[in-house]
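look at this one:
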Amino acid sequence: MNTSSLRLALLVSVLFNLGVLGALGWQQLADRTSASDTPLLVRELQLDDEQQQQWQDIETLFLKELEHSTLAIQQQRNRLIDSIFAQQLDAERISAAQRALAEQQNQQQQLVIEQLLREREILNTAQRQRLAQLLSQQSLLPTDVEMLHNE
């Protein structure tokens, strides 16, 4: 075999191997994508089809309400910050903004509790225990304020 034939054989071999690697990578990506189409809790709790439908029915409205609540909390938090750093310090305005923020946070907490109670009704005993375990294991990350002050 001459040098050009060896180079051609090597090039064909490399291209073939790259094609195989590309196909394997594509397959893994497709597997991840199809798995990620299913929400994490649905996968973790191994919901059956009926449970999954019930979950979807209550989850959609909950997520909209949670998003609305989070936005309201962010806006009220910004009003509190504005009050704290206003040109003229007004203790009553700060206190009112703080109370309003606490009320919105309490409402959001109630929203989450009500959702967990609805989810509880869908789940069997083992699934409830798994959900409780997942919720208990969630780490409480430092807030942005804590991170700002620690850096």
User: Anything to note?
Assistant: The mean pLDDT is 79.
